[in-house]
Amino acid sequence: MTNLFSPFDLAGLTLPNRVVMAPMSRVRSNPEGLATASMATYFSQRASAGLLITDGIQPSRQGQANPSSAGLHSPAQVKAWKPVTGAIHANGGRVFAQLMHGGRISHPLTSGQQPVGPSAIAARNTMVFTPQGPLAAPVPRALSTAEAAAEALVYGEAARNAVEAGFDGVELHGANGYLISQFLSTSANQRTDAYGGSITARIRFAVEAVAGTVDAVGGHRVGIRLSPGAGIWDAVEEDVPALYTALLKELAPLGLAYVHLVASTDDETMQSLRRAWPGTLIVNPGAGTATARLDAERWLARGADLVSFGRAFIANPDLVERLRTGLPLTTADQETFYQGGDRGYLTYPAYAY
Protein backbone atom coordinates (compact mmCIF):
# COMPACT_ATOMS: atom_id res chain seq x y z
CA MET A 1 0.00 0.00 0.00
CA THR A 2 1.30 3.46 -0.95
CA ASN A 3 2.16 5.68 1.99
CA LEU A 4 4.42 8.60 2.79
CA PHE A 5 7.42 6.30 3.10
CA SER A 6 6.98 4.33 -0.12
CA PRO A 7 9.70 4.89 -2.73
CA PHE A 8 8.84 6.82 -5.88
CA ASP A 9 10.32 7.10 -9.37
CA LEU A 10 10.52 10.81 -10.20
CA ALA A 11 11.29 10.84 -13.92
CA GLY A 12 14.10 8.33 -13.43
CA LEU A 13 15.27 9.74 -10.09
CA THR A 14 14.61 7.22 -7.33
CA LEU A 15 13.18 8.82 -4.19
CA PRO A 16 13.32 6.70 -1.01
CA ASN A 17 10.15 8.35 0.32
CA ARG A 18 7.43 10.79 -0.73
CA VAL A 19 8.40 13.59 1.66
CA VAL A 20 9.55 16.73 -0.15
CA MET A 21 11.22 19.69 1.51
CA ALA A 22 9.37 22.70 0.12
CA PRO A 23 11.25 25.81 -1.00
CA MET A 24 11.49 28.38 1.80
CA SER A 25 13.25 31.74 1.68
CA ARG A 26 16.10 31.67 4.20
CA VAL A 27 18.27 34.39 2.53
CA ARG A 28 21.63 33.14 3.77
CA SER A 29 23.91 33.82 0.79
CA ASN A 30 26.70 36.40 0.80
CA PRO A 31 26.34 39.85 -0.83
CA GLU A 32 27.58 38.52 -4.19
CA GLY A 33 24.78 35.95 -4.28
CA LEU A 34 27.15 33.05 -3.62
CA ALA A 35 26.06 29.91 -1.82
CA THR A 36 27.92 29.35 1.46
CA ALA A 37 29.29 26.53 3.61
CA SER A 38 26.39 27.06 6.02
CA MET A 39 23.95 26.43 3.18
CA ALA A 40 25.74 23.18 2.37
CA THR A 41 25.34 22.09 6.00
CA TYR A 42 21.69 23.18 6.17
CA PHE A 43 20.58 21.23 3.12
CA SER A 44 22.72 18.16 3.78
CA GLN A 45 21.22 17.94 7.29
CA ARG A 46 17.83 17.45 5.60
CA ALA A 47 18.97 15.04 2.88
CA SER A 48 16.76 12.21 4.17
CA ALA A 49 13.83 13.89 2.39
CA GLY A 50 12.81 12.16 -0.80
CA LEU A 51 13.50 15.45 -2.58
CA LEU A 52 14.93 18.78 -1.43
CA ILE A 53 13.89 21.99 -3.18
CA THR A 54 16.03 25.03 -2.45
CA ASP A 55 14.81 28.45 -1.49
CA GLY A 56 14.34 30.80 -4.44
CA ILE A 57 17.47 31.37 -6.54
CA GLN A 58 17.47 34.34 -8.90
CA PRO A 59 18.00 33.28 -12.54
CA SER A 60 19.36 36.73 -13.41
CA ARG A 61 20.41 39.91 -11.69
CA GLN A 62 17.19 41.50 -12.92
CA GLY A 63 15.23 38.71 -11.22
CA GLN A 64 16.60 39.18 -7.69
CA ALA A 65 13.72 39.69 -5.25
CA ASN A 66 15.40 39.55 -1.84
CA PRO A 67 18.68 40.77 -0.38
CA SER A 68 21.09 37.92 0.46
CA SER A 69 19.44 35.46 -1.90
CA ALA A 70 21.72 33.29 -4.02
CA GLY A 71 21.96 33.34 -7.79
CA LEU A 72 22.71 31.01 -10.69
CA HIS A 73 23.68 33.53 -13.36
CA SER A 74 27.46 33.84 -13.03
CA PRO A 75 30.40 31.41 -13.13
CA ALA A 76 31.24 32.27 -9.52
CA GLN A 77 27.73 31.42 -8.40
CA VAL A 78 27.80 28.09 -10.24
CA LYS A 79 31.11 27.25 -8.57
CA ALA A 80 29.76 28.22 -5.13
CA TRP A 81 26.79 25.85 -5.47
CA LYS A 82 28.95 22.79 -6.23
CA PRO A 83 29.95 22.15 -2.57
CA VAL A 84 26.27 22.43 -1.61
CA THR A 85 25.03 19.87 -4.13
CA GLY A 86 28.07 17.72 -3.37
CA ALA A 87 27.27 17.68 0.36
CA ILE A 88 23.63 16.79 -0.33
CA HIS A 89 24.58 13.92 -2.62
CA ALA A 90 27.24 12.70 -0.19
CA ASN A 91 24.49 12.43 2.43
CA GLY A 92 22.34 10.42 0.02
CA GLY A 93 20.00 13.25 -0.99
CA ARG A 94 18.47 14.62 -4.19
CA VAL A 95 17.95 18.33 -4.86
CA PHE A 96 16.19 20.64 -7.31
CA ALA A 97 17.05 24.35 -7.51
CA GLN A 98 14.05 26.65 -7.38
CA LEU A 99 14.45 29.38 -9.99
CA MET A 100 12.64 32.48 -8.75
CA HIS A 101 12.35 35.67 -10.80
CA GLY A 102 10.84 38.33 -8.56
CA GLY A 103 9.48 40.50 -11.35
CA ARG A 104 7.83 43.54 -9.75
CA ILE A 105 8.44 42.15 -6.23
CA SER A 106 11.88 43.67 -5.96
CA HIS A 107 13.54 47.04 -5.48
CA PRO A 108 16.43 48.96 -7.07
CA LEU A 109 18.25 48.86 -3.72
CA THR A 110 18.18 45.05 -3.92
CA SER A 111 18.91 44.30 -7.57
CA GLY A 112 20.48 47.58 -8.71
CA GLN A 113 17.83 47.76 -11.44
CA GLN A 114 14.25 48.93 -11.81
CA PRO A 115 12.02 45.88 -11.37
CA VAL A 116 10.16 44.62 -14.42
CA GLY A 117 6.70 43.14 -14.74
CA PRO A 118 3.93 42.42 -17.19
CA SER A 119 2.47 45.91 -16.64
CA ALA A 120 3.62 49.14 -15.01
CA ILE A 121 1.50 48.46 -11.93
CA ALA A 122 2.93 48.34 -8.42
CA ALA A 123 1.70 45.75 -5.94
CA ARG A 124 -0.87 47.58 -3.83
CA ASN A 125 -0.32 48.07 -0.09
CA THR A 126 2.83 46.00 -0.33
CA MET A 127 6.23 46.36 1.31
CA VAL A 128 9.19 44.55 -0.27
CA PHE A 129 12.44 43.52 1.38
CA THR A 130 15.49 45.72 0.72
CA PRO A 131 18.96 46.10 2.28
CA GLN A 132 17.52 49.12 4.14
CA GLY A 133 14.48 47.25 5.45
CA PRO A 134 10.92 46.99 4.12
CA LEU A 135 9.99 49.66 1.56
CA ALA A 136 6.94 50.25 -0.60
CA ALA A 137 6.86 48.15 -3.75
CA PRO A 138 7.98 50.33 -6.65
CA VAL A 139 6.23 50.70 -9.99
CA PRO A 140 7.87 48.19 -12.33
CA ARG A 141 8.86 48.81 -15.93
CA ALA A 142 6.50 46.94 -18.24
CA LEU A 143 8.30 44.46 -20.45
CA SER A 144 7.80 44.94 -24.17
CA THR A 145 6.47 42.00 -26.16
CA ALA A 146 9.97 41.11 -27.35
CA GLU A 147 11.40 41.57 -23.85
CA ALA A 148 8.76 39.28 -22.35
CA ALA A 149 9.71 36.52 -24.79
CA ALA A 150 13.38 37.02 -23.93
CA GLU A 151 12.75 37.12 -20.17
CA ALA A 152 10.99 33.75 -20.35
CA LEU A 153 14.26 32.24 -21.59
CA VAL A 154 16.36 33.28 -18.57
CA TYR A 155 14.97 30.30 -16.64
CA GLY A 156 16.51 27.92 -19.17
CA GLU A 157 19.83 29.70 -19.01
CA ALA A 158 19.87 29.40 -15.23
CA ALA A 159 18.78 25.75 -15.50
CA ARG A 160 21.88 24.95 -17.55
CA ASN A 161 23.95 26.56 -14.81
CA ALA A 162 22.07 24.53 -12.18
CA VAL A 163 22.89 21.25 -13.92
CA GLU A 164 26.53 22.32 -14.21
CA ALA A 165 26.47 23.09 -10.47
CA GLY A 166 25.33 19.53 -9.71
CA PHE A 167 21.59 19.97 -9.17
CA ASP A 168 19.36 17.05 -10.12
CA GLY A 169 16.87 19.45 -11.66
CA VAL A 170 15.10 22.79 -11.32
CA GLU A 171 11.71 24.03 -10.20
CA LEU A 172 10.34 27.19 -11.81
CA HIS A 173 8.68 29.40 -9.21
CA GLY A 174 5.32 30.08 -10.82
CA ALA A 175 3.58 30.74 -7.50
CA ASN A 176 3.15 33.37 -4.79
CA GLY A 177 2.99 36.52 -6.89
CA TYR A 178 6.44 36.42 -8.52
CA LEU A 179 7.03 37.00 -12.24
CA ILE A 180 5.34 33.93 -13.73
CA SER A 181 2.45 34.37 -11.32
CA GLN A 182 2.23 38.07 -12.25
CA PHE A 183 1.63 37.14 -15.88
CA LEU A 184 -1.16 34.76 -14.79
CA SER A 185 -2.76 37.51 -12.72
CA THR A 186 -5.49 39.86 -13.89
CA SER A 187 -4.43 42.56 -11.42
CA ALA A 188 -0.70 42.59 -12.21
CA ASN A 189 -1.13 41.81 -15.92
CA GLN A 190 -3.24 44.31 -17.84
CA ARG A 191 -1.51 43.86 -21.18
CA THR A 192 -3.31 43.84 -24.51
CA ASP A 193 -0.68 41.98 -26.55
CA ALA A 194 -0.01 38.24 -26.87
CA TYR A 195 0.88 38.02 -23.15
CA GLY A 196 -2.27 39.50 -21.62
CA GLY A 197 -6.03 39.60 -21.69
CA SER A 198 -7.42 36.15 -22.42
CA ILE A 199 -6.52 33.02 -20.48
CA THR A 200 -4.58 31.77 -23.50
CA ALA A 201 -2.50 34.94 -23.49
CA ARG A 202 -2.00 35.09 -19.72
CA ILE A 203 -0.58 31.56 -19.59
CA ARG A 204 1.77 32.18 -22.52
CA PHE A 205 4.70 33.46 -20.45
CA ALA A 206 4.53 30.46 -18.08
CA VAL A 207 4.36 28.00 -20.97
CA GLU A 208 7.27 29.65 -22.79
CA ALA A 209 9.37 29.75 -19.61
CA VAL A 210 8.78 26.04 -18.97
CA ALA A 211 9.25 25.04 -22.61
CA GLY A 212 12.52 26.96 -22.82
CA THR A 213 13.77 25.27 -19.67
CA VAL A 214 12.79 21.85 -21.01
CA ASP A 215 14.70 22.62 -24.21
CA ALA A 216 17.72 23.59 -22.10
CA VAL A 217 17.97 20.63 -19.72
CA GLY A 218 15.24 18.10 -20.55
CA GLY A 219 11.74 17.69 -19.13
CA HIS A 220 12.85 15.07 -16.63
CA ARG A 221 14.83 17.79 -14.87
CA VAL A 222 12.05 20.41 -14.74
CA GLY A 223 9.16 21.07 -12.36
CA ILE A 224 6.97 24.09 -11.71
CA ARG A 225 5.34 25.35 -8.52
CA LEU A 226 1.91 26.99 -8.73
CA SER A 227 -0.43 28.56 -6.16
CA PRO A 228 -3.92 28.75 -7.72
CA GLY A 229 -5.94 31.69 -6.46
CA ALA A 230 -3.52 32.58 -3.67
CA GLY A 231 -3.42 36.32 -4.42
CA ILE A 232 -0.03 36.74 -2.71
CA TRP A 233 1.85 40.03 -3.33
CA ASP A 234 -1.38 41.42 -4.82
CA ALA A 235 -1.30 39.05 -7.80
CA VAL A 236 -5.06 38.47 -8.00
CA GLU A 237 -6.38 35.88 -10.46
CA GLU A 238 -9.79 35.44 -12.04
CA ASP A 239 -11.36 32.23 -13.42
CA VAL A 240 -8.92 30.16 -11.36
CA PRO A 241 -10.16 26.66 -12.35
CA ALA A 242 -10.24 27.55 -16.05
CA LEU A 243 -6.89 29.38 -15.89
CA TYR A 244 -4.98 26.54 -14.28
CA THR A 245 -6.71 23.79 -16.24
CA ALA A 246 -5.65 25.54 -19.44
CA LEU A 247 -2.10 25.95 -18.15
CA LEU A 248 -1.77 22.30 -17.15
CA LYS A 249 -3.15 21.22 -20.54
CA GLU A 250 -0.40 23.20 -22.28
CA LEU A 251 2.31 21.87 -19.95
CA ALA A 252 1.26 18.21 -20.20
CA PRO A 253 3.05 17.43 -23.50
CA LEU A 254 6.38 18.79 -22.23
CA GLY A 255 7.24 15.72 -20.13
CA LEU A 256 7.90 17.52 -16.85
CA ALA A 257 9.22 15.81 -13.75
CA TYR A 258 6.31 17.26 -11.75
CA VAL A 259 3.85 20.01 -11.01
CA HIS A 260 3.97 21.33 -7.44
CA LEU A 261 0.61 22.75 -6.31
CA VAL A 262 0.07 24.77 -3.16
CA ALA A 263 -3.34 23.96 -1.68
CA SER A 264 -4.31 27.62 -1.99
CA THR A 265 -7.75 27.05 -3.46
CA ASP A 266 -10.80 24.97 -2.60
CA ASP A 267 -10.78 21.17 -2.55
CA GLU A 268 -13.03 20.89 -5.59
CA THR A 269 -10.61 22.92 -7.70
CA MET A 270 -7.64 20.98 -6.36
CA GLN A 271 -9.31 17.72 -7.34
CA SER A 272 -10.13 19.05 -10.80
CA LEU A 273 -6.49 20.08 -11.29
CA ARG A 274 -5.36 16.62 -10.22
CA ARG A 275 -7.58 15.19 -12.95
CA ALA A 276 -6.25 17.71 -15.46
CA TRP A 277 -2.59 16.90 -14.79
CA PRO A 278 -1.50 13.47 -16.08
CA GLY A 279 1.97 13.53 -14.53
CA THR A 280 3.54 13.53 -11.08
CA LEU A 281 1.87 15.88 -8.62
CA ILE A 282 3.42 17.34 -5.48
CA VAL A 283 0.96 18.98 -3.09
CA ASN A 284 1.96 21.49 -0.45
CA PRO A 285 -0.80 21.73 2.19
CA GLY A 286 0.03 25.42 2.65
CA ALA A 287 0.82 27.64 5.61
CA GLY A 288 -1.28 27.28 8.70
CA THR A 289 -2.22 23.63 8.16
CA ALA A 290 -1.12 20.67 10.24
CA THR A 291 1.94 18.80 9.06
CA ALA A 292 1.35 15.48 10.77
CA ARG A 293 1.76 12.22 8.94
CA LEU A 294 -1.97 11.52 8.75
CA ASP A 295 -2.63 14.88 7.10
CA ALA A 296 0.07 14.19 4.51
CA GLU A 297 -1.34 10.77 3.77
CA ARG A 298 -4.78 12.30 3.27
CA TRP A 299 -3.28 14.28 0.39
CA LEU A 300 -1.79 11.09 -1.00
CA ALA A 301 -5.25 9.53 -0.82
CA ARG A 302 -6.64 12.52 -2.74
CA GLY A 303 -4.28 11.86 -5.63
CA ALA A 304 -0.99 13.54 -4.74
CA ASP A 305 2.13 11.51 -5.51
CA LEU A 306 4.38 13.46 -3.13
CA VAL A 307 3.73 15.89 -0.26
CA SER A 308 5.93 18.88 0.51
CA PHE A 309 6.58 20.25 4.00
CA GLY A 310 7.78 23.78 4.60
CA ARG A 311 8.24 25.23 8.08
CA ALA A 312 8.30 21.80 9.70
CA PHE A 313 11.67 21.22 8.01
CA ILE A 314 13.19 24.39 9.46
CA ALA A 315 13.27 23.14 13.06
CA ASN A 316 13.28 19.40 12.29
CA PRO A 317 16.19 18.41 10.07
CA ASP A 318 15.22 14.77 10.71
CA LEU A 319 11.58 15.38 9.80
CA VAL A 320 11.26 12.15 7.81
CA GLU A 321 12.26 10.03 10.79
CA ARG A 322 10.04 12.02 13.16
CA LEU A 323 7.05 11.48 10.89
CA ARG A 324 7.88 7.82 10.43
CA THR A 325 8.11 7.09 14.15
CA GLY A 326 5.57 9.59 15.51
CA LEU A 327 8.13 11.72 17.34
CA PRO A 328 7.07 15.25 18.38
CA LEU A 329 7.97 18.14 16.09
CA THR A 330 9.97 21.15 17.25
CA THR A 331 8.44 24.57 16.50
CA ALA A 332 10.65 26.97 14.58
CA ASP A 333 11.50 30.45 15.88
CA GLN A 334 9.99 32.86 13.36
CA GLU A 335 12.37 35.64 14.41
CA THR A 336 15.28 33.74 12.82
CA PHE A 337 13.58 32.80 9.54
CA TYR A 338 15.30 35.56 7.55
CA GLN A 339 17.83 37.23 9.86
CA GLY A 340 20.95 35.63 8.47
CA GLY A 341 23.66 33.82 10.38
CA ASP A 342 23.62 30.27 11.69
CA ARG A 343 21.28 30.79 14.65
CA GLY A 344 17.91 29.38 13.71
CA TYR A 345 19.51 27.88 10.61
CA LEU A 346 22.00 25.26 11.75
CA THR A 347 21.10 25.17 15.43
CA TYR A 348 18.12 22.80 15.35
CA PRO A 349 19.31 19.29 16.28
CA ALA A 350 17.92 15.92 15.37
CA TYR A 351 15.65 14.38 17.98
CA ALA A 352 17.51 13.41 21.16
CA TYR A 353 16.35 10.00 22.35
From TrEMBL:
Residues 4-329 form the NADH:flavin oxidoreductase/NADH oxidase N-terminal domain. Keywords: Oxidoreductase. One of its GO terms (molecular function) is FMN binding. GO terms for cellular component: cytosol. Its cofactor is FMN. It comes from the Bacteria. InterPro entries: Aldolase_TIM, OxRdtase_FMN_N, Oye-like. PANTHER family: NADH OXIDOREDUCTASE-RELATED, NADPH DEHYDROGENASE 2-RELATED. Belongs to the NADH:flavin oxidoreductase/NADH oxidase family. This is Alkene reductase.
